[in-house]
Each structure stands twice: as C-alpha cells, then as structure tokens.
C-alpha cells in the first residue's frame, strides 16, 4: 500500500500527471493504491450528500463516505489518519472508514 501526496488547488487535483476537476473546493486529498481520497471543504456547502469521497484517477466517484448518524445534518472536517482511513465529524465522532467502500468500520464518540 502506497500513500502519495498530491497537489490540489480549489476544486482541482493533479495526480500522476492528470488534472481532475471536482464539484467542490478541496480541503485535503491523497492518493492511495490508485484511488484519490478527497475531503471537500466543509465551509463550502450543505453536505447532506457527503463531503468525504473517493474518486478514480479518471475522476469517477467511487463512493461517498457514510455518516455516523442518519437523519442529521453532518460533515467531516478532518482526515486524522490516512492508514487506517480515519475522519472526524462535526457530530463529534472519530470514524474509521473502509477505504474500499466508504462504510464506517468503527466509530468513537469524542465528547
């Protein structure tokens, strides 16, 4: 498993010499095993559809991360670990995500 830093600016990523334009401004992103993991800027919109995604090198969206609580407005604000993939949510959960599916493997309430 190789984790690579990639360059990004606003809503564009350059990975392995390819420019990919996404629909929202990017807060953080990295390349792992040929897939790009992207955390969209939580201040840039409503996130009922999710702001942590995985895309292929062609820009195709592979998954949107599951939220820790359903029926509640939430968003992720920090990638706290790249391996394992761990993200922190506004609703005070630290969630380990399955990098293949975006499903939550484990969650810990932080408050």
Could you please describe the fold and organization of this structure?
The structure is a single chain. The chain has 111 residues and is mainly β. 0% of the residues lie in helices and 53% in strands. It has no helices and twelve strands. Strands 1-5-6-7-8 form a five-stranded antiparallel beta sheet, with no helix packed on it. A four-stranded antiparallel beta sheet has the order 9-10-11-12, with no helix packed on it. The chain is globular, with a radius of gyration of 13 Å.
Give a short overview:
By secondary structure, the protein is mainly β. Helices cover 0% and strands 53% of the residues. The model has no long low-confidence stretch (mean pLDDT 92).
């Amino acid at each position: 498993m190789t984790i690579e830093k990639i360059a990004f600016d606003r809503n564009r990523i350059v990975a392995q010499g390819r420019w990919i334009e996404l629909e929202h401004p990017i807060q953080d992103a990295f390349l792992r095993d040929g897939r790009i993991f992207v955390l969209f800027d939580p201040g840039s919109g409503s996130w009922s559809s999710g702001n942590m995604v995985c895309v292929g090198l062609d820009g195709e969206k592979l998954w949107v991360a599951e939220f820790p609580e359903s029926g509640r407005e939430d968003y992720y604000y920090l990638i706290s670990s790249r391996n394992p993939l761990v993200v922190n949510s506004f609703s005070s959960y630290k969630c380990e995500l399955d990098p293949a599916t975006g499903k939550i493997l484990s969650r810990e309430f932080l408050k």
